[in-house]
Amino acid sequence: MGKSKPVLEMIDLIGNLLYIFLSIYFIYYMLTNEIEFRYLAIVPCFFFIQGILGLVAWKRRKEA
After folding, report:
1. Spatial CB neighbours of 40, under 8 Å, sequence gap ≥ 6
2. Model confidence at 2, in pLDDT bands (50, 70, 90)?
3. Which residues, 6 or more positions from 22, have their beta carbon under 8 angstroms from its beta carbon?
4. Are 58 and 12 in contact (CB under 8 A)?
5. Coil, strand or helix: which one is 3?
6. Model pLDDT for residues 5-58, shown as the tens digit of each residue
7. 29 near 43, Cβ under 8 Å?
8. CA dist., res. 11 & res. 19, Å (int)
9. What are the φ/ψ torsions at residue 4 (nearest 5 degrees)?
């Protein structure tokens, strides 16, 4: 495979970090405020996991 461009790598990194921080914010918001369906806080957890896996993949691409 060819080397990826630094701009695309930075966009990928920023996207993964946004997934993580926004999912933490939404989990916090859903659990601290009075919303009707608190069990929906599980949905941002999937985005958090996606962000973590994206960071792992980004790090492995950087090492390769």
Report:
1. 30
2. low
3. 44, 47
4. yes
5. coil
6. 888 888 888 999 999 999 999 888 888 887 777 778 788 889 899 999 999 998
7. no
8. 12
9. -85, 160
What's the CA angle centered on 15, arms 12 and 64, to 5 degrees?
25
Please give the structure tokens belonging to residue 63: 């090492």
Distance separating alpha carbons of residues 18 and 26, to the nearest angstrom: 12
Helices 6-32 and 42-63: angle between axes, nearest 10 degrees: 160
The region that residue 4 occupies, defined by phi over 0 for left and psi between -120 and 50 for alpha, beta otherwise, is: beta
